[in-house]
Amino acid sequence: MEGVTSAAVTQPRAESRRTKAPAARRSLAAALLLGALGAAVALLASRQTWAEGDAATAGGALHQIAKGSDVTGVPAALAIVGLAALVAVFAVRRTGRVLVSALLALSGAGTIAAALLGAQDPAALDEKAATASGQAGATIDAVTFTPWPFVAAAGGLLLLLAGVLALRFGASWPAMSGKYERGTGHGKATRTDPDRPEDLWKALDRGEDPTN
C-alpha cells in the first residue's frame, strides 16, 4: 500500500509540473517581448517631435520644434531602467525577483505618466522661443502637438504589462544557474550558488563565470 500511495502522490505532482511548464514559458516569452518592445518604443518616441510652432522674432516668425527629450527626459530614462530590470529578473530569485519585477512595472507606469503630462506641455517650445528672440517672455504662437507622446505612453504600457507578468509568473521562471566544477582537493563537484556572495567571490577567484 505504501508503494501505491507514494506513486499516486508523485504522479499528480509530476502532472502539475508538466501543466505549469508551458504557462511559465508563455508568460516568460510574453514578458520578454513586451518589455523589450516597450523600452524600444518609448526610447524611439522620446527622440521624435512632440510639439512645434512659430516664435515671433525681429526678423519674422521662426519655426521651432520640441522633441520628446526637450519636453521631458523621464520616459527615456525609465525605459532604460525598465530594460535593465527586465534583464535583472533572471539574475535574482525569491524576494529579489519580486522587487525587480515591481521596479519594471513602476518604470512602465512612470513612463505613461510622464508622457501624458508632456503631451500638451508648451514649456519647452516657449523656452526655445525666448532663446531665439532674446526676450524672456516670448512664447510660441499656434502650437501644434504630435501623437508621439501617446506612442511613448504606449511603450510604457508594454513595460507595465511585462512587469505585471513578472510579478504574477516570475516565481516559476528560470534563473541563472550555478556552475558545477570538479573540486581540486577532494575530486567532488562543487556548486556556485548565485545567492551566496562568498561563493561568487570564490568562483571569480578561480577564473570562472558564476552566472553560467
Automatic annotation (TrEMBL):
The lineage of its organism: Bacteria, Bacillati, Actinomycetota, Actinomycetes, Kitasatosporales. This is TIGR02234 family membrane protein. Residues 1-22, 180-212 are annotated as: Disordered. It comes from Streptomyces solicavernae. InterPro entries: Trp_biosyn_TM_oprn/chp (IPR019051), Trp_synth-assoc_CHP (IPR011746). It comes from the Bacteria. The chain crosses the membrane at residues 27-45, 73-92, 99-119, 148-169. Keywords: Membrane, Transmembrane, Transmembrane helix.
